[in-house]
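Support request, please re-run this one:
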Amino acid sequence: MKENPPRIKLYIACSLDGFIAREDGNIDWLTKYDNNPETNYGYSEFYESIGTVLMGRKTYEQALGFGEWPYGEKKTYVFTRQKESLHHEKNVEFVTGDITEFVRLLKENKDQDIWLMGGSQLIKAFLKENLVQDLIVFVVPIILGGGIPLFDHIGKEVRLRSGRIERYENGLVRLEYKVQEQIKK
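Re-run finished. Output below.
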């Protein structure tokens, strides 16, 4: 076992009412807050700190729509239950097996931290299996009134310790937490 194994970090934005996308998966409400040279919300620093990206199939398909693959040099694992093949980007591997065993092996073989990007069902699975150590959540000043929830009925209590909090002029707020303990219900 490594002395300082990599940490799995959820780094994500959500609406004030806790949604990461509209019902149809659309994230058009985030475009106003895209990273730019004046305000990249610490993304560059975060991106440099991670070596691996984890995402669900729907998040992967959405990322393909951004044009050029944005995570080209990072090893990316896409969790899917689908048997048919998906478009395959460079450094992307599809995972269909046991999440807990996969993450255990991944952490044994990686040195840099791991980005849990989403979506909602993958976040739920990771939290259920006690696989997340850090949460970096950007709260966007908008109430969507419905959509895909950030935390979708994970079925247990997760206690957090707050860390850095940062407010941006455009109203966005960055909240950082460390997972303290997870209590089965």
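The chain has one domain: 8-184. The first helix runs from residue 43 to 49.
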